[in-house]
Amino acid sequence: MTTSLLLALLLLPYDGKYADDPRLDAIRKELPARAEAARKKLEDLLQVKVPEVGIRLVDAGDDRSGVFAESGDGFIALKTEYLVLGAFDLDKTLVHEMFHCLQRARLGRRYDRVPEWVREGAALYLAGQGPERARSLAAIAGKDGISKLVNGLGGSHGLLDYYEDAAAFERVGARGRDLVRKLLETDDVAAAVKEVLGEDMATFEAETMRHARAVLEPLLAGPHAPVEALRKAQALAAEAKDAEALEAVRGFLALYRTEAWLLGDAVRLELELLRRTGSPDHAEAAKRAAKDLTVFAP
Ligand SMILES: [Zn+2]
Fold first, then answer.
1. Which segments of 142-281 does DSSP mark as H helices, in order?
2. Distance, CA 120 to ligand 1 centroid (Å)?
3. What is the pLDDT at residue 81?
4. For the whole model, what pTM was predicted?
5. How far is the C-alpha of 131 from the C-alpha of 127, rounded, in Å?
6. More confident call, 107 vs 71
7. What spacing in Å lies between the alpha carbon of 148 and ligand 1's midpoint?
8. Ligand 1 centroid vs 276 CA: distance in angstroms?
9. Residue 5 C-alpha to ligand 1 middle, in angstroms?
10. 225, 248 in Cβ contact below 8 A?
11. In the chain, pLDDT over 90 holds for what percent of residues?
């Protein structure tokens, strides 16, 4: 069997709303090779064998819980709408989700006892998503949002906790990898931290919070380039400067698609401007939007 046939087996059959859409088709063709590259990257980072995982494409429909991919026992589910929209960095997402699969496979039933900050922090750190997450969350939380973003590692876990999770590993640089490797063997996090870093949990948590604050505080003050870029397009549209607004929103879409929390508004604005300017592209764009925008609140 050739390598390409083997790789193709990683991608599960898909028969959803984009089955005949050339946008998804292009991504599907590349997915097995990109998943394999992500697996190799994770193996290089951790120096452990990473098992192959299957990839399922799933239409989110009107599930608006967010761009997050899901992973389970040996599979990763990617939401097609966000994939087609280019709303996340696919290569980083594959490393991230593959790490979840790896840790789950290594720990078995003990995985349920691993705190959320360990699971997510390690995945973000290995995928190199910490810095971009810090920028987005700072923009989402707003100027006075530091206490929402840095509040300790325990407690209930939500969107705004993700940078602090990453900071737990980023802070210690390359030793973060040693800590992740240890956490593939045990769910006793305090013992792993003690062994690898020589810190007790109180120190580890305090130092993590200090690091997260140091990274986030300058970002919270702004300005946030993606937010500014979209605002500028919206302001031009409000002044009926349609051609300029269209150019501005396309500028946003060229640079900032991975800011998924702004993407729905941007795509809607582009569509509205195509309509207003009588563009011949409007009909096709409207068809695409009807499929893509189900994941964003109306
Ligand atoms: Zn995750």
1. 146-149, 162-170, 175-182, 189-197, 201-220, 225-238, 242-256, 260-276
2. 5
3. 96
4. 0.94
5. 11
6. 107
7. 19
8. 40
9. 29
10. no
11. 88
